[in-house]
Design the sequence.
């Protein structure tokens, strides 16, 4: 909260300072000005992703503002010294502007939300099944690690058939870290587990919760939900989103090809490959 207040005060002082500067058409939204050049609040906000935390947003706006002022000083100084773009730099700028306009045109013409039918997904899965193989032994695991032995919790786990329910009821999931993940880990490589856990997984039947496994960082409990051997086919549900993305890409390419063909009919196109051969 203190940082947020500090940034708010700093921002207010900047705005107050700028209100005393020479006016321009957008003076009420100007956040920084260097001679006659200025940047508006809207321009700074456009640099920040939607949904950004307010405190982070203020910090980023302050950073972007300071960066703009610094760059504008360099830019205006370079102009005053009559520096200009090289021939190659001008080509790069022209090419970038060209590509930007092309992309904008394509995005305005090409559909962005393709309707993928269930039959299309199933057909694609059946026709490309060999592409959806597990390349290593993978397991779907619920994992809990408790630093110290807690009789009440241990007793509940021994009677439970749902380790995730225990984790949520005691808020153990709030203690999850990348190095000590707690909860539903989804599908992970068996080889990523410590050796004692690998050994225990191989002994468990699907759905079973293990007895506590003592390691250096505490007591581990695991519940095996699925075991997929290397070379097994992945279930359709696991690859559904990947297939939808692949089909969307295919549909986009088809739509783009159709647009190209329609546009080419309106142009006189000539090429001379002989000039390339003598290059």
Sequence:
């Amino acid at each position: 909260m203190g940082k947020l207040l500090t940034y708010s005060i700093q921002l207010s002082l900047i705005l107050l300072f700028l209100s005393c500067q020479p006016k321009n058409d957008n003076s009420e939204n100007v956040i920084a000005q260097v001679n006659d050049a200025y940047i508006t609040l809207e321009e700074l906000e456009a640099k920040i992703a939607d949904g950004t935390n307010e405190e982070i947003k203020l910090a980023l706006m302050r950073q972007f503002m300071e960066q703009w002022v610094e760059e504008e000083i360099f830019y205006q100084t370079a102009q005053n010294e009559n520096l200009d773009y090289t021939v190659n730099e001008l080509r790069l700028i022209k090419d970038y502007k060209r590509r930007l306009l092309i992309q904008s045109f394509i995005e305005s013409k090409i559909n962005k939300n393709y309707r993928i039918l269930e039959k299309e997904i199933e057909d694609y899965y059946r026709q490309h099944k060999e592409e959806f193989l597990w390349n290593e032994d993978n397991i779907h695991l619920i994992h809990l690690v408790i630093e110290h032995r807690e009789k009440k919790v241990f007793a509940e786990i021994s009677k439970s058939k749902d380790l995730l329910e225990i984790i949520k009821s005691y808020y153990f999931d709030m203690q999850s870290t990348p190095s000590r993940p707690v909860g539903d880990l989804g599908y992970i490589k068996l080889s990523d587990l410590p050796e004692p856990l690998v050994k225990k997984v191989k002994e468990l039947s699907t759905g079973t919760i293990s007895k506590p496994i003592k390691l250096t960082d505490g007591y581990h409990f695991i519940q095996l939900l699925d075991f997929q051997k290397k070379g097994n086919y992945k279930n359709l549900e696991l690859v559904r989103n990947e297939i939808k993305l692949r089909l969307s890409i295919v549909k986009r390419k088809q739509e783009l090809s159709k647009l190209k063909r329609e546009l080419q009919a309106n142009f006189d196109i000539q090429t001379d490959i002989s000039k390339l051969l003598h290059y």
Q: What stands out?
A: Residues 120 and 247 are 8 Å apart (CA to CA). The two ends are 65 Å apart (CA to CA). The beta strands are 30-34, 37-40, 138-146, 183-189, 213-215, 218-228.
